[in-house]
Amino acid sequence: MGTSDLRWVVKFPTPSCPKCGKEGVETIAGLINRNEITCGFCGSAINLTSEDWRAYLKEAMDALGKIGASYRKIP
After folding, report:
1. What is the pTM of this model?
2. CA 62/CA 40 separation, integer angstroms
3. How far apart are CA 8 and CA 13, in angstroms?
4. What is the DSSP letter of 35?
5. Tens of pLDDT along 27-74?
6. Domain count of the chain?
7. Which domain range does residue 10 map to?
8. Beta-carbon contacts of residue 23 (< 8 Å; ≥ 6 apart)
9. How far is CA 26 from CA 7, 31, 47, 55, in A?
């Protein structure tokens, strides 16, 4: 399994919904190229474009790349 496959497996917390305040989870692959997601609890839009959020997601992707590199070494 490569890191691209791990992106479809690893769940990542989403930002809190601005309307209901709940936090969901989504695969990293499901968040990478999106600017907005829909809250699974109330249906409101959750913005994913803030610099802080993008930096957090990039840090998670970098860590996932390291995990994937180690995983590929396992026989």
Report:
1. 0.78
2. 27
3. 14
4. S
5. 998 999 999 999 999 999 999 999 999 999 999 888 888 887 777 777
6. 1
7. 3-73
8. 13, 14, 15, 16, 17
9. 10, 7, 14, 17
